């Protein structure tokens, strides 16, 4: 799990390379798993100065997702 201290909205992200699942944890609560995400997209999110914007522009509407209950 990678903490994103510089983001006000996204608290942390994780990635399962074998399943190509991106896990996004939000500060407001909730975890979402995005399916079929290539490793380069995960790397772009980690390297972004603005992870919330990166998520909105390249992940949110581009990959199927499921909300995971706590």
How would you sum up this structure, described in words?
With 70 residues, the chain is α+β, with helices and mostly antiparallel strands. The chain has one domain. 24% of the residues lie in helices and 34% in strands. It has 2 helices and 5 strands; from the N terminus they run ββββααβ. The protein has a 5-stranded antiparallel beta sheet with strand order 1-2-3-4-5, covered by helices on one side. A hairpin with a 4-residue loop joins strand 3 and strand 4. Helix 1 packs antiparallel against helix 2. The longest helix has 9 residues. The chain is globular, with a radius of gyration of 11 Å. The two termini are 16 Å apart.
Q: Which helices and strands appear, and what pairs or packs with what?
A:
Blueprint: E1 2-3, E2 10-16, E3 21-26, E4 31-35, H1 39-47, H2 51-58, E5 65-68
Antiparallel strand pairs: 1-2, 2-3, 3-4, 4-5
Strand order of the largest sheet: 1-2-3-4-5
Could you tell me the strand content as a percent range?
Answer: 25-35%
What is the mean predicted local confidence, pLDDT?
Answer: 89
Query: Structural class of the secondary structure composition?
Result: alpha+beta
Largest sheet: 5 strands, antiparallel
Low-confidence stretches: none
Please give the alpha-carbon distance between the first and last residues.
Answer: 16 Å
Shape summary: globular
Overall tally of domains: 1
Q: Name the helicity range.
A: 10-25%
User: What is the succession of H and E elements?
Assistant: EEEEHHE
Count of DSSP-assigned helices: 2
- Rounded Rg: 11 Å
- Give me the count of strands: 5
